[in-house]
Design brief:
This protein has helices spanning 19-23, 29-38, 53-62, 80-89, 92-109, 150-162, 184-201, 214-222, 239-245, 271-289, 308-316, 336-342, 350-362, 373-385, 388-391, and strands at residues 7-10, 42-47, 66-69, 73-78, 114-117, 120-123, 129-135, 167-171, 207-210, 227-230, 249-253, 296-299, 329-330, 367-370. It has 400 residues and is an alpha/beta fold. The protein folds into 2 domains: 7-109; 114-391, Dihydropteroate synthase-like (TIM Barrel), CATH 3.20.20. The radius of gyration is 22 Å and the shape is globular.
């Protein structure tokens, strides 16, 4: 396990929330209002900041920022220039903490622009990229085993690429609490032949494998897969090493509890704070194992060890995840927490799933894992079209 590092996170202020609203969760109301009014900058929180917090708070005040040490937490309202000035004056633990604040600020403002997956790279600068779900299980909650055959899986993968999918995510194990975990050999037997066939088909997009097992990942990577989408948060100690050895990419997901087991309740004191700390630790483990930082993405794990209200809180504050500095994977397609909000089955959740994807993309997600490829590609393209940096070279059709 890597040593614990202070983990700064920029509090996003989307969906009508103000900086004061976000600060109010961490400060008394009067201080939150003071912090929001004193400076037109970012609100940043660091849990367990260490011994340099008080010193850095004073330096930040001297640089024109607002900063408070509240219990085991450093809360800051600052611009980039005030952070840089404080960092230039800080040394030792305060200097390391200041560097972490600058890193979080820059990560929030400048998202990762690509994800390298072995010999293929995904350009994330223009728009979010769509990951098409290809479940090759007999017990998929949505596909119901429709692609549990190599030829049908090949046809579906080709269809999704034609519809605009930028990645194909092959899964051989359902993680629903309604289904039991299968043996590693059975999972590999489902996944590896499909990977081999898709490699032969030369689809031209990265192949992702949805697995938490190092053994399955190793065989799939040997067969030509490019990315491992791990829903367990690196529960298998060997997984990161296997991915590094193949020079492949990895998605690190947050998970509370265990796969295929649903606990009675999942309470959080500060959901986004806990999720970001978990993902920071997991990504540092992946880097120490030898995976390049440009080959790592993160996923907050919507519905995995969460209650519906927590999932909705994650959607509201999704932009906080930008502080990690990695591409963010958004995965909410037809999930049951959306069904619980609308009291509808998965088959009737297309529109709210697309709305959820739009929320995630607008907040910074650059990978979107979905069942409905064409519709999500349209959402991603529309959101990209309104960005100022894209409008100048947008090709617009003639008026009809």
């Amino acid at each position: 396990m890597p040593a614990a590092v202070p983990n700064a996170r920029v509090l996003s202020a989307e969906h009508g929330a103000s900086v004061a609203d976000r600060l109010a969760a961490y400060l008394p109301a009067s201080l939150a209002a003071e912090g929001a009014a004193s400076i037109d900058g970012a609100a940043i929180v660091v849990d367990a900041p260490g011994g340099g917090a008080l010193e850095l708070a004073e330096l930040l005040h001297g640089a024109g920022a607002a900063a408070w040490v509240e219990g085991e937490r450093l809360v800051v309202s600052a611009t980039r220039s005030s952070l840089s000035l404080a960092a230039s004056r800080a040394a030792g633990a305060a200097g390391e903490l200041a560097a972490e604040l600058v890193r979080a600020f820059d990560s929030d403002r400048t998202p990762a622009r690509r994800l390298r997956t072995r010999d293929l790279s995904l350009d994330l600068s223009e728009r979010a990229r769509v990951m098409g779900i290809l479940n090759v299980t007999p017990d998929s909650f949505f596909d119901h085993g429709r692609y549990n055959d190599v030829d049908r899986a090949r046809a579906r993968a080709a269809e999704m690429v034609a519809l605009g999918a930028d990645i194909i995510d092959v899964g051989g194990q359902s993680y629903s609490a309604l289904n039991l975990q299968i043996a590693s050999e059975e999972e590999a037997a489902r996944v590896v032949p499909v990977v081999r066939a898709l490699v032969r088909d030369e689809l031209g997009v990265p192949l992702s494998i949805d697995t938490f097992r190092a053994g399955v990942a190793e065989r799939a990577l040997d067969a030509g897969a490019h990315l491992i989408n791990d829903c367990s948060g690196l529960s298998d100690d060997r997984l990161a090493e296997v991915v590094a050895a193949a020079d492949a990419a990895l998605v690190v997901m947050h998970l509370r509890g265990r796969l295929n087991i649903r606990d009675a309740a999942y309470p959080y004191d500060d959901a986004l704070g806990e999720i970001l700390d978990y993902l920071r630790e997991g990504t540092e483990r992946a880097v120490l194992a030898g995976i390049g930082r440009d080959s790592i993405a993160v996923d907050p794990g919507l519905e995995f060890g969460k209650e519906p209200r927590t999932d909705l809180e994650i959607l509201e504050r999704f932009g906080d995840l930008r502080s990690l500095g990695y591409p963010i994977l958004f995965a909410a397609s037809r999930k049951s927490f959306i069904g619980q909000v609308f009291d509808l089955p998965a088959s009737e959740l297309l529109v709210p799933s697309l709305a959820s994807a739009a929320i995630g993309i607008a907040a910074g997600a650059r990978l979107v894992r979905v069942h409905d490829v064409a519709e999500t590609v349209a959402v991603a393209r529309m959101l990209a079209a309104v960005r100022s940096e894209n409008r100048s070279h947008l090709v617009v059709a003639a008026r009809r």
